[in-house]
Amino acid sequence: MKKYKVGYVAGIFDVLHIGHIDTLRRAKEQCEYLIVAVGTDEFLKIRKNRDAVIPYIDRVQIIQSLKYVDEVVPENDLDKIRAYKEYKFDVMFAGDDHQNEQVYIDAEKILNELGVDVIYLPHIHKVSSTWIREKIRGMD
């Protein structure tokens, strides 16, 4: 029996790498059912001020194919309270790089009041989508 019934994690997953896989694995280890919100192309443009490398529909199919993922939903904004109301998770996972972002601090307080735990997973791999994109650019 896992500690949590329904877990939720959100990400863009534009250039999938081992850090993403590890985050999803560690989240799934703690919950029976894992919902993964994949950022839409429009949200990516707003959040990161860049276009997607891999289109949203393809990223959804990639994430759906992973054994740690039970359901994929769209992420259109950073409103974690709206996401909670829609998906009724009892734990939200996020990378520890988000721990000091005000939107996460505010959401964590409200989610905790609603009985939802927020777990920040440390990045144990020294890779990121940004690093991969820069490495590819340097190959030109």
Q: Which helices and strands occur, and which strands form pairs?
A:
Blueprint: E1 4-11, H1 18-28, E2 31-39, H2 41-48, H3 56-64, E3 71-75, H4 80-87, E4 91-95, H5 102-113, E5 117-121, H6 129-137
Parallel strand pairs: 1-2, 1-4, 2-3, 4-5
Biggest sheet record: 5 strands, parallel
User: Largest sheet, order of strands side by side?
Assistant: 3-2-1-4-5
Number of extended strands: 5
Beta-strand content: 15-25%
Number of H/I helices = 6
The percent range for helix content is 40-55%
Mean pLDDT: 92
* Oligomeric composition of the shown chains: single chain
Q: Give the distance, in angstroms, between the N- and C-terminal Cα atoms.
A: 50 Å
SSE sequence, one letter per element: EHEHHEHEHEH
User: Cα-atom Rg, whole angstroms?
Assistant: 15 Å
| Unreliable segments of 5+ consecutive residues | none
From the helix content, strand content and strand pairing, which structural class follows?
Answer: alpha/beta
Sum up the overall morphology in one term: globular
